[in-house]
Amino acid sequence: MPAAPSGASSAAFVIRIPSSTAASGQFARPQYVSPSTQSLQIAVTGEATPVVANLTPASPNCTPASGSKPLTCTVSVTAPVGTDTFTVAMYAQQNASGYVLSKGSVTATITANQSTPVNVVTQGVISAIQLVLGGPAPAYGKPSKIPLTVNVKDASGNVIIAPGNYATPIALTDSDAKYTTLSTTSLTPPSASVTVSYNGGPLSSATISAAASGIPATRITNAVFQPIGFRNYAIPTASSGTYIMTAGPDGNLWFAERDKSKIGRITPAGTIAEFVVPTSGSNPLYITTGPDHNLWFSEYYGNKIARITPAGAFTEFPVPTVNAFPQGITTGPDGNIWFTEFLGDKIGRITTGGTITEFAVPTASSSPLEIAPGSDGNLWFTEYNANKIGRITPGGAITEYVVPTANSQPGLIGPGPNGNLWFTEYTGNKLGEITTGGAFTEVPITTANSQPSGLALGPDGNLWFTELGANQIGRITPAGVVTEFSTGITGTAAPIWIAAG
Hints:
Helix content is 0%, strand content 46%. It is mostly beta strands. The strands form 10 sheets. It has a 5-stranded antiparallel β-sheet, with no helix packed on it. A 5-stranded mixed β-sheet has the order 13-15-11-10-17, with no helix packed on it. The chain has a 4-stranded mixed β-sheet with strand order 4-5-1-8, with no helix packed on it. A hairpin with a 5-residue loop joins β19 and β20 (253-257). The radius of gyration is 34 Å and the shape is elongated.
């Protein structure tokens, strides 16, 4: 450095830059320095031109890293004698270019004719924020405290650590104001700890969000707090005989109330509304979302196929075959509604305008029960009493395949995570899988006599099912691994049907 002019002296800054692989806190230092730092700029009160220095192993003012010692650079600046303010900025590229990774300022007294060491605590400049919950899915209904880790990164992707504060404070918010509480809503030092307290209330989920000045939402990853466990919601109408459920086009779940001839709707928060079916005693059973964005359902004793709008308006269409007892219902790949006739031994097709066509199943008294679209563009259905799986083309051609386990009574059927159809074997105590070519695989349920009933593909990519006889909910992975969960339900209210919300 050139000699200091009259009335000026020098200040020396020592910068230690950790390696990118060094563990946080491995090197004691008086400032946050990003491992990606390549240069710095120091501006001094009263000096017109800031000092710029590169901070690399090849820079003349630096000593390369050796063993446990990090890259160490010494930068001297000229400063007026007296009280001066030094403003430091660390950059991701050489010659004070690229992103600013950290910055800070300090006031120091400079004495004539001597070099004054100056310590400055630089603050990490935030580029991205990630919130991570130590346990995002605690037990539902049980009070708990969950640690929240706030990973704050500079522009080079390094986590900003203590000492020093963030250059910009971070604000934390909680979407739930009733069941969860944050231990703090503002973060300045990286060392601050945050806890989410859950009081055990009926919470579906809460989003913990972060924000900082100048940081776009696309650079922030929030955390979702979602207690898991079984939650029971009482249906207003007693003994309603709740049957099949389905996800509706309005974002709610819809279900049939068999014994009270009603259709129910439940919001994600658990609010239930009921709508009376026009035909009294019709026993609605199965329900599905139609291509017209309405709900369609079968009326077992009413011998009708009906439609209900999300607002609750009904239309009913009689099935041509008398006493057909329609049950399963689904939207087909052809844009029509398809249904099974349990005692009519037929498969029915109804357009959104109400025109019905029926196709006879080859095996008499087969009792077709449930129906679902396959990946091959056809409809697949279970034959409860015939112990078969049937396939019907949109044109009405039917093929039947015998289930390997005798008298297993196949019931529910639906798409699995691997593109094949899966079905429950009620008395066979198995889950069955059938390819579009008719090849079977069967997976035994761990619990004996569990009576698998309902079946649905979950949002986690696994298949979920109910065990009526065991009071359990089961999960099966695409690899065929079965896990069972006790519902805790007592008495006669055992789980039968299941649907993805």
